[in-house]
Every structure is written in C-alpha cells, then in structure tokens.
Design goal:
Blueprint lengths: L10 E2 L1 H8 L7 E2 L6 E6 L1 H6 L5 E2 L10 E4 L11 H11 L7 E10 L8 E11 L5 E7 L5 E15 L14 E6 L1 H4 L22 H19 L4 E7 L7 E2 L3 E2 L4 E5 L5 H15 L8 E6 L5 H9 L3 E6 L2 E5 L3
Parallel strand pairs: 3-6, 14-15, 15-16
Antiparallel strand pairs: 1-7, 2-3, 4-5, 5-9, 6-7, 7-9, 8-9, 10-11, 11-12, 11-13, 13-14, 16-17
Amino acid sequence: MDLDALKPGLLTTRSAMHELFGGGSQGGIITPKTSPNILIYTDHDSGKRYGYEDGWLEEEDELGPVFEYTGQGTRGDQTFLGQRGSRNAAVLYHADAGKSLRVFMAAGKVPRAGSAAKQQRYVGEFELDTALPYTVREALDEKNEPRLIIVFRLHPKGDFERLTQDVITRAASTDAQRVSVQVVTTTLAEPKRQRAVESRRAAQPSLIADLRQAAIREKYLAELMERGHDVGAFQVRVSGMTNTLKTDLYDATEHELYAVRGASTREEIRMAVGQLKDFARHIMPKNLKLTALLPEKPHDDLVNFLHTEGIDLVYGDAQGYTRCAAR
C-alpha cells in the first residue's frame, strides 16, 4: 500500500500501517521515527474500561466537527512529562514537529480464520483545536479510583469519515458529577521545547486574559482552603448531548458556585452570568449561591447587573478580596 491509497473509510490493519509508516505496534499513540506522522488508534470498547469514550462529538464548534481523543496512560493521572507522557507530548507538539495526526477506529476482527487481529478503519488526518487543544477531566480507572485524564480536541484536516457509530454516546439523563478541584485548577506541566520560538507549538492556549484568570482562581482557591472549605468542581453531561461541560470552583461548604473571569469588562461579566445561570439548573440542591470572581471591581452599572441577577460579586483589591452580596 502507498500513501495515496490511504483514504478515509479504508479498512486496514496495524501491521499494514506499520509497513507504510513505521513505528511500533502497541499502544494508542504510535510515533514513527521513519515518517512525519503520528498514528492514533482508538477503540470504543477498550476506552470504556478506563472511564472514557473517544469519538466524534455530535455538537460542532465554530471550527466545525470535533473528535475527542483521550491521551495515553491507564494508571494514575495522565501527563505530558517523562517517558509516561512522551506520546501525549508528541500529539500536543505535532505541528511544531511537522507531523500529521492520523486517526484509526477499531472496526471488528480481521475476517480471516483464527485471526485475533482487529481491523482499523482510517478516519482521516487531524489537527489540534488552536483555541483549546486539550481539556483535563476526571475519570474512574479499572479499580474505580478517580484520576485525571487528558482529552485532546481534534479537528479534521482535509477529507474525513464521520460515521454514526463513531459518535460519542449521548447522555441518557442529565448528570452533574462532583469532581476534584484539580479538574479546573490543574495546569498540566508541558515539556520545554529546545526551539527558540515557543509560540509555534501545535496549539497555543490562550493568552493574557486566560493566564490572569488562572492566577485569580489559584489564589482564591488557596484562600478558601485556608478557611477549611471543601472545594471542588462539577462535570456536567446534559441529557441527549455528547459533550462534557465543566464548572468553575464549587465551594461545597457554602454550596456556592463561582465563575472566574480574567477581566472585569461587560463582555466578561455577561459570560460569567450566562455560565452561572446555565450550570445552576443542573446542580442540586437548588438553593445554590452564585458568585462572579473578578480581578478588580467593575463599573457600578455592572455590579447592579450582577445583583439584579441574584449573583454575588467577589473582586480583588489591595487587602485581598472584597465581597458585594446580592442579598
């Protein structure tokens, strides 16, 4: 087989792809040294054993279809560092290294007597979402222990095949699952590049506002923890949908949900209001306190907007933080 014959929908095998691209034959992420490609293999059945499901989201974003792929590592938290995280790092920096991401979906056994090998259906070539290349979630491992997983967000690059059976299973009912605060506060360490231009990474997470937002979140979390509060977050799956949503900080001690924004502008406050009102519908019990956490006090009109919506304001100042209660 040559590369021209590799079209979306083609049924092939790992051994055939090894002959074409090189690399090993084990694991979900293969990084050949003899060709500029990274091969990603996924299997609906095996993924569910480790608390996740890879595949297409039914809901598209502004860049089009999204394929979610969970990083490598079945024990403990997944990482980008060291030998355990080297293949995840290869996916993260694939564009910087000039490599193509090629996705294959397991498609039953090879139709040959006595064969245990699985067929692999070529889905297409992909690239990472430039705005959000990956997200961190919590999942249960084989021993029912929680761990952090890396979920890459991939967009097709050129032709692709999107079959119904490859779409992630819709949620049967709405479920807001309490998870570790690390799901929203952890910034995964990424390997240092040897190149001078760090910004040529495969996908650059956002910039100053997001960094400021993360700094505010971490600082305020530390304050809540010092007070002895039980702080976490929620992962939410909405009935009939395939994507997984994440809240910001949730203070279980006060039954209080925060929306943390990196600026105190009207646009950011509108986003905070929408985020809080959206999630509040799904979190029980219903008497949830809603709070916007901002870097500085906004204009009085925006404070009034928050209070009119029944949302408290907490903002940073010289003394630490000030709360303006809605009621």
